[in-house]
Amino acid sequence: MKILWTLLYWFLLFLNAFGLACGRNVTYDGRSLIINGQHKMLFSGSIHYPRSTPEMWPSLIAKAKEGGLDVIQTYVFWNLHEPQLGQYDFSGRRDLVKFIKEIHARGLYACLRIGPFIESEWSYGGLPLWLHDIPGIVYRSDNEPFKLHMERFTKKIVDMMKSEKLYASQGGPIILSQIENEYKNVEADFHEKGPPYVRWAAKMAVGLQTGVPWIMCKQDDAPDPVINTCNGMRCGQTFAGPNSPNKPSLWTENWTSFYQTYGEEPYLRSAEDIAFHVALFIAKKGGSYVNYYMYHGGTNFGRTASEYVITSYYDEAPLDEYGLIRQPKWGHLKELHAAIKLCSKPLLSGRLTNLSLGGKQEAYIFKGNSGECAAFLVNLDNKRDVKVLFQNVSYELPRKSISILPDCKTPVFNTAKISTQYNTRSVTSRRTFDSIEKWEEHKEVIPSIHKTSLRANSFLEQMSTTKGTSDYLWYTFRFPNPDQTAQSVLNVHSNGHVLQAFINGDFVGSAHGSHQNKSLSLEKNVTLRTGPNYISLLSAMVGLPDAGAHLERRAAGLTRVRVHGKDFTNQRWGYQVGLLGERRQIYTDHGSSKIQWSRYGSSRHQRLTWYKTIFDEPPGNDPVALNLGSMGKGEAWVNGQSIGRYWVSFLTSQGSPSQTRYNVPRSFLKPRENLLVLLEEEIGYPLGISLDTISRTKVCGLVSESHLPPVCSWTRHDQSEEICQINSGRGPQVQLQCPPNTTVSKISFASFGTPFGDCESQILGTCHSSNSRATVEKECLGKSKCSIIVASHTFGDDPCPGIPKSLLVDAQCK
Ligand SMILES: *[C@@H]1O[C@H](CO)[C@@H](O)[C@H](O)[C@H]1NC(C)=O
Ligand SMILES: *[C@@H]1O[C@H](CO)[C@@H](O)[C@H](O)[C@H]1NC(C)=O
Ligand SMILES: *[C@@H]1O[C@H](CO)[C@@H](O)[C@H](O)[C@H]1NC(C)=O
Ligand SMILES: *[C@@H]1O[C@H](CO)[C@@H](O)[C@H](O)[C@H]1NC(C)=O
Ligand SMILES: *[C@@H]1O[C@H](CO)[C@@H](O)[C@H](O)[C@H]1NC(C)=O
Ligand SMILES: *[C@@H]1O[C@H](CO)[C@@H](O)[C@H](O)[C@H]1NC(C)=O
Ligand SMILES: *[C@H]1O[C@H](CO)[C@@H](O)[C@H](O)[C@H]1NC(C)=O
Asked: Ligand 5 in contact with 521 (CB < 6 A)?
């Protein structure tokens, strides 16, 4: 008998060691995903591993977890992993396995969106450009060459995840994977080749036997057992629902903002609006999975951004480009998650009923079998705050808001009432480069036709000529002065994106398109000389296309050139792929040392100049950014690593650049003598560049007496988990929290009464408690966090009885 027990013990140990015993069965039904037999309400956030650095991953994931997320979602970036057919790269920022393991280490789940077409404002939508050269290929269609490579890469990734035991079925964190991406947007363009491709993709994916469900987003005909999911801003209103009663409602992209292109202002989506639509999706559509796209956007390093997309990606997300917590977005969503988690039981097992509470007011009630009850009270009226009666109790509902009642009685959260703190980004200039001794320059040679070796008799298409190795393609031509007149007209048309024209080495004009209209034309009066004239046209791309059907048919570069009315399009042009500085890797230590650099300003300014300087790392841990506000357009490298394209001269309708600060991750830096190299395409002023550090040390709270108290008081449940208990009794509070390792050093403003303003600017109102500042200082100065109950008794007595009051506090952390 004893031997039997011993054997059993060893057997169990063996199972455990191989991860079999802890494998989790992931299935689903009409209500939700089911993990290990349990229905789940899951909040998820997109964080794309190559848009930050491995050094940033642990803290990003930890902040996501603290913000109440259960799942981290990422795309897989095919062209990053297989830059050449069969040559794979999973190093550094490309280390997908390390990223997934980091998610696992923090106790979160992962959703792997393999695609492998991903769009994602990523160069070529993630497809490797070498696909273009495969004969007969049609991307994303029932096309054998494409399917062959798509299957090969998908299998490569799935096998990699399997061999590292990363699927939940193997004890790992991956609970979902995605095949294709928003295909319904383009399916009609593929006519009869579309539907069989969808069926093939689903079958191929399911055949890979991951043990976890597959999803297709925005694909209402996703074949069983693949789940169709919603992407968008307002799935609570727009989602037609799963295509089978046995599939749950999942929202895979809840856009927290929107990507930004050059010439555009950032898209601001308020925390209140996001929270409203998430709560509506859960209440009205029975949603059980919501993913924020993006939770952290990060940086499009190098040339990875797609057409006209700026280098900073979704900076407005709950974690900003630098990974700093953006308030109140992060905190308001954290409270929303906590409030919804308090409703988990009735939400996941209860029955849904609804009732009207007025013209534009509705209640959604979830009732469980053992008496659990949760309610969502919705005011769809955008203009009016209302009072509603629900189960004989009166509730105030601000305009366009949802109150969450985890017991059908007590509202713990309202989507329009922010009780979490605000914070703003502070920028400190750490280094300037304002003396000419600090800079050296190197002028790129403007090639004329006898310096180029590639020839063709009609215009070459840009992407298929550069093969994506450079943004730049030179078109060069030589012609005799047509009729001896000095004045002439140059006329150029291009499919995009940016054109610079030189005649006999002199700049004559430039033009660019935009995200809305990529094509451009240039018409310039030019002076010709007698004898041969040399025309050099530089066509630059600002990212490869990433969206729409038939990417393989897209064209960029020049389409027509006329001089003096005569068409020179179908003549023998010479080409140079890329710039000489790029070819010599002038931006690396090694490449730079082999270049003849000149003193800054040693000759007249020229378009296309390389600049070089060195700098020491700023002290501390705050994120670092380069302010390139004095430059025009180009690319910047720090110690050989590209921090991305910049384009400061393309102004928005408000007259400002779309982006002036460019993220320099600390991990790119060494303590001393970092090499900074810039390629300026236009005329820039490097002496105006500064190196800044970024912090969010200014915090602010604005809470009224009628606010709800914070959703949770967190109590330690066991060693690892904190649980949220409904906060009772203590009333509304202003809660301030400083960034790690800092404390409140100054109260810049404090008023309990009727202060005017918000966290940008503050003025005292007619009602003001003279004890406001002293009370707040006593509670907060020198502390890393503090909370003040918003009620008269906190401040001694009531400064204006009968008048609704609030507390506005603005503080500085140090
Ligand atoms: C997973 O769960 C489903 C449904 O509950 C069940 O039918 C199946 O046998 C389970 N599979 C494993 C491997 O436990
Ligand atoms: C309430 O439920 C009924 C019956 O299920 C449905 O027809 C109606 O559209 C729902 N109303 C709202 C506002 O969702
Ligand atoms: C509401 O009040 C009415 C009459 O006062 C009573 O009959 C009813 O049971 C109450 N309903 C609830 C849900 O308390
Ligand atoms: C796009 O720009 C080109 C060149 O400036 C112009 O000819 C064309 O009409 C524009 N197209 C649209 C749709 O605005
Ligand atoms: C070129 O010069 C002519 C005559 O001086 C003038 O009318 C025309 O507007 C000019 N065109 C451009 C594009 O500058
Ligand atoms: C906070 O200070 C500790 C101890 O000095 C240090 O180890 C840690 O890295 C600091 N954290 C941050 C976020 O700066
Ligand atoms: C996604 O979240 C935002 C808030 O971040 C919200 O405004 C939006 O409506 C949500 N999208 C959907 C489809 O619910």
From this structure: no
Asked whether 631 and 644 are in contact (CB, 8 A), the reply is no
pLDDT at residue 792, rounded to an integer: 94
What do you get for the CA distance between the two ends of the chain, in Å?
67
- Co-location of 165 and 239 in the same domain: yes
| 684/705 same-domain check | no
791 and 759 within one domain: yes
User: Is 499 among the domain residues?
Assistant: yes
Atom of ligand 2 nearest to the CA of 355: 1
Look at residue 717 in the predicted model and tell me its pLDDT: 62
Of the pLDDT bands very low, low, confident and very high (cuts 50, 70, 90), residue 265 is confident
- Cβ-Cβ contacts under 8 Å for 731 (sequence gap 6 or more): 709, 789, 790, 791
How many structural domains are present in the chain?
A: 4
Which residue has the least CA distance to atom 10 on ligand 3? 392
Atom of ligand 7 nearest to the CA of 257: 5
pLDDT, position 110: 98
253 is annotated as an active-site residue: yes
* Amino acid of residue 755: P
How far apart are the C-alpha atoms of 687 and 691, rounded to whole Å? 12
- Is residue 182 flagged as an active site residue? yes
Mean pLDDT of 346-354: 95
The residue whose CA is least distant from atom 3 of ligand 1 is: 27
Residue 59 CA to ligand 6 center (angstroms) comes to: 12
pLDDT tens per residue across span 690-718: 999 999 999 999 999 988 888 887 666 66
Position 218 in a domain: yes
| This prediction's pTM | 0.93
Ligand 5 close to Cβ of residue 523 (< 6 A): yes
Average pLDDT over residues 49-65: 98
Ligand nearest to the CA of 621: 6
**pLDDT for res 37:** 93
In a domain, 748, yes or no: yes
Structure-block tokens of residue 635: 């690319």
Q: Find the helix or strand (DSSP H, E) in which 28 lies.
A: strand 26-28
Q: Which of 102, 180, 253, 444 is catalytic?
A: 253
Look at residue 646 and tell me whether its pLDDT is greater than 80. Answer: yes
State the DSSP string of 125-163.
Answer: GG--GGGGGSTT--TTSS-HHHHHHHHHHHHHHHHHHHH
Q: What integer best gives the mean pLDDT of the chain?
A: 93
Q: Which of 119, 182, 187, 272 is an active site residue?
A: 182
Please give the number of the atom of ligand 6 that sits closest to the Cα of 739. 13
pLDDT of residue 232: 75
Distance CA 559, CA 722 (A): 62
Whether residues 285 and 270 share a domain: the answer is: yes
Span from the CA of 707 to the centroid of ligand 3 (angstroms): 27
- Among 661, 694, 727, where does a domain finish? 694
Q: Give the other-Cβ count within 10 Å of 808's Cβ.
A: 26
Evaluate if residue 760 carries a pLDDT over 50.
yes
pLDDT value of position 472: 98
Distance 293 CA to ligand 7 centre (A): 9
Where a domain ends, among 694, 717, 744?
Answer: 694
654 is in which domain, residue-wise?
427-442+583-694
How far apart are the CA of 408 and the centre of ligand 6, in A? 43
Residue nearest to atom 12 of ligand 3 (CA): 391
Calculate how far, in angstroms, residue 522's C-alpha sits from the geometric centre of ligand 5. 13
Residue having the nearest C-alpha atom to atom 3 of ligand 4: 520
Beta strands in 401-503 (DSSP E): 401-405, 413-414, 422-432, 440-443, 454-456, 472-480, 487-494, 498-503
pLDDT tens-digit series, residues 65-115: 999 999 999 999 999 999 999 999 999 999 999 999 999 999 999 999 999
Same domain as 202, residue 110: yes
Q: Are residues 767 and 645 in the same domain?
A: no
Please give the number of the atom of ligand 6 that sits closest to the Cα of 741: 1
- Sequence-distant (≥ 6) Cβ neighbours of residue 263 within 8 angstroms: 308, 514, 515, 650, 651, 652, 653, 658
Helix, coil or strand: residue 254: strand
- ∠282-283-289 over CA atoms, to 5°? 10
